[in-house]
Amino acid sequence: MAKARISISLEQDQAERIRQHAERAGMDVSAYMVHAATRQMAESDAIEEQFAEVDALIAQAERAAGALPAHTAPEPAAELTEQERHEVEEALRLVQGRDRQGRRPGHAA
Question: Are the beta carbons of 27 and 39 closer than 8 angstroms?
Fold first, then answer.
């Protein structure tokens, strides 16, 4: 198979690190770079293949969303009752991981 030459530019410290890693792997820099790039491409291909179905579902959902009519702003919500305000505050404390006294469970006071 015919070989192709590719030229890359990188910082001197990066080049030195690549040389050191190639040497430790018992490879010349070209073989090391080809091996690293080939491995990265194989990983990317495997990830793309694994998520192809999910990506297709997302694309389908985006197309469907694009066909929906423009969103209009909802009517402003009525003022919360005292009970509703208390329930919202309680829910926020739970989300923030705080108990009724404002302490985070499992943490010293």
Answer: no
